[in-house]
Amino acid sequence: MDLINDFRDKDKILALSKLIRAKSKALKKPLNIMEICGGHTHSIMKFGLPQLVGESINFIHGPGCPVCVMPRRAIDEACKLASMENTIFTTLADMIRVPGSTHSLAQLRGQGHDIRALYSPLEALEIARQNPSKNVIFFAIGFETTTPMSAVLVEKTLNENVKNLFFHINHVTVPAPLRAIMSDEKARIDGFLGPSHVSVIVGSDEYKGLCAEFKKPIAISGFEPLDVMASVLNVLEQCIAGTHEVYNEYSRVVSAKGNEVAKRLINKYFAPCDMLWRGLGLIEQSGLDLRSEYDALNAKKCFDCSVISKPESKACICPQILKGLAKPYDCKVFGKACTPQSPIGSCMVSGEGACAAYYKYARNI
User: Which among 42, 115, 241, 300 is most buried, taking Cβ atoms within 10 Å?
Assistant: First the structure.
């Protein structure tokens, strides 16, 4: 099996397009399907899938980008920590560019602060070893996909007795925001495309409770266009039939129970906590933080992280986009004042953000 070309087969994709359009005639109203993963958003826009599924299927872009859901307060805390003397601040990729209340980490780096973007969390451990006289802070982000890597880093830090590496943990989980979205009276979601990489860790069984509680189908989908089209077809068929099951389209990678080793490692070092989400507000037990027995590594406990954050820009509608209540092109500053080069909102900063996807693939549609 060719894991790229076989899942981009033109004839099969067009056959699914024809089938989806035909079955959509049984709908009484357009079907709203929310993709949870930012990677799906980019695949949907890159391959022109909204045009292929027809007007009866409406893609809604959910809070599946870890950078996009990071609240301004967390960015401000990161900036405060990164500004401390004798500190090396480390994090992953796009976090450096997200605007805080007054500046971003990238701007602080331009002022001379030692702020480093990592390819792997384990790089933070090497930086700490090489700089024993400095405090090294790792700002961890991501859904269940990246959480095991942070857990491994914590374990290695403890095993090697590294005393100058600290953690600001901002990991979030998928089920909690889905429950929050579906509990919102304004939500008009008929079904979901379940996340790919997250599901590799948590397993397909993780979503059974959500399906039963809200009576909505969830199709766990791969990233290729054939994956997404097959998953859309399943959600469509379930909605017509009135069923609400978990469908594992990505069974070549995702199992029912997920990665048990990774889950045990996460539970060993992290505990659920309430988390503030950009656009969604405070969601109970939706995040993870270091367990109390590891307070000596917790940057939130070891340093002053108190900040006073400004409200989000009134021009930015990222909160509505993350809830599925608006599209990026509904925003007045999209593609004008807000671009990937000068982002106002978090959905434009990240490579997985919905605004970034629309800017790259659908600006002129």
Answer: 115
